[in-house]
Amino acid sequence: MDLDGDNVISQGSGTVEDPGDLRIIGNSLPRFVYSVRTNFSWAGVDLSVFFQGVGKRDWYPAQAQSSYDFWGPYAFPSTSFIHTSFSENIWTEENRNAYFPRPRGYQAYSGGSLGEVNDRYLQNVAYLRLKNLTIGYTLPVFINKIDRIRIYFTGENLWYWSPLKKYTKTVDPELTVTSGTYVSNSGTGYAYSKTFSLGLNITF
Questions:
Q1: Which of 21, 78, 127, 155 has its CA 20 to 30 A from that of 140?
Q2: Residue 137: beta bridge partners?
């Protein structure tokens, strides 16, 4: 939009004093970072639960090949992985209220219409994640020289909720603004996969 009224849509000088028609529409810094840990034990059974999350954070999907998981064929027409609900959000004559525009390849590349940061596709990557769940049971001990026997199950990253899931279920909100992943700022990587463990502790 021509926000500065000069009849030209531009970035001005690209400075704070002369931003042209650019406006700040988001903040990639996390706000309201929180965590909750609780422990419970009774009659030999113990339970530990750990949640963590961020209350507000903005992210605009990266351009070009690093954005396949969010933009799908808008980034690259021959993208091989597209989640099943993606087509429900694409504009067609029968689906005029769709979130994404009509299908056009390379629009999420640099210079493409979706590569320009805008408030329609600015994402709220707030999240709540179940980081750890541990359930254990301490068995009664009737053996000399053994003080304690405990069996346990633990799971990491078992579940998460985020407003981002409304438009994509393959982008991890916790990875969207990090550089230490498979592709920087893409929301995809291997850091938060689900893991399960079963163990036995014996105290002599």
A1: 155
A2: 45, 151
Specify whether 84 is located in the same domain as 141.
no
Q: Give me the pLDDT at residue 138, please.
A: 93
Q: Is 146 within the bounds of a domain?
A: yes
DSSP state of 63: P
Residue 2 falls inside a structural domain: no
Give the span between the Cα atoms of 82 and 169, in whole angstroms. Answer: 11
In the predicted model, what is the mean pLDDT of residues 114-120?
86
Alpha-carbon Rg for the chain, nearest whole angstrom, is: 24
Asked if residues 46 and 135 have their Cβ atoms less than 8 Å apart, the reply is yes
Q: Identify whether residues 54 and 66 lie together within a single domain.
A: no
**Could you give the CA distance from residue 74 to residue 99 in angstroms, rounded to a whole number?**
13
pLDDT > 90: what percent of the chain? Answer: 44
Residues 60, 40: Cα–Cα separation, whole Å: 40
180 occurs within a structural domain = yes
45-56 and 31-42 strand pairing: antiparallel
Q: How far apart are the first and last CA of the chain?
A: 73
Residue ranges making up the domain that contains 95: 62-116
**Do residues 55 and 125 lie in contact, with contact meaning Cβ atoms separated by under 8 Å?**
no
Is 8 inside a domain boundary? no
Number of other CB atoms surrounding residue 181 within 10 Å: 20
Closest CA to 3 of 119, 139, 132, 114: 119
Are 138 and 202 contained in the same domain? yes
Percent with pLDDT over 70 in the chain: 91
Do residues 143 and 198 both lie within one domain? yes
